[in-house]
């Protein structure tokens, strides 16, 4: 993890992201602060990684590792080894490479990711 110099303060907001990436049934807002890329992803009901982003990533499953804080909605994650998780608002998840994920129910999923969004949706 990179450390900020003690004399440098920064303030950024997802209300004014540095970059926005749109993909089917979702979007990713990116900010870079302290040399670190942080993403806020919004996934609409019906979103599924294997349908929305697999054609962009061209990998069998999601290869981006994630360290996420879940703000809203329910995200179901299935690891390549078969383990399954339901991530809900208030949860923090650490997901290694090799998974699929999808929105459960009618509420959009919103997550803030501190690790795996630098190349997500590109």
From TrEMBL:
InterPro entries: RmlC-like_jellyroll, RmlC_Cupin_sf. It comes from the Bacteria. This is Cupin domain-containing protein. It comes from Candidatus Berkiella aquae.
């Amino acid at each position: 993890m990179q450390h900020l110099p003690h004399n440098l303060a920064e303030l950024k907001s997802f209300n004014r992201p540095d970059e926005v990436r749109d993909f089917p049934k979702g979007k990713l807002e990116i900010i870079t602060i302290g040399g670190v890329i942080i993403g806020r992803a919004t996934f609409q009901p019906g979103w599924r990684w294997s349908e929305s982003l697999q054609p962009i990533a061209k990998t069998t499953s999601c290869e981006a590792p994630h360290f996420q804080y879940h703000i809203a909605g329910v995200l179901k994650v299935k690891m390549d080894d078969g383990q399954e998780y339901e991530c809900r608002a208030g949860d923090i998840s650490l997901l290694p490479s090799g998974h699929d994920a999808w929105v459960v129910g009618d509420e959009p999923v919103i997550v803030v990711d501190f690790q795996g969004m630098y190349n997500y949706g590109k």
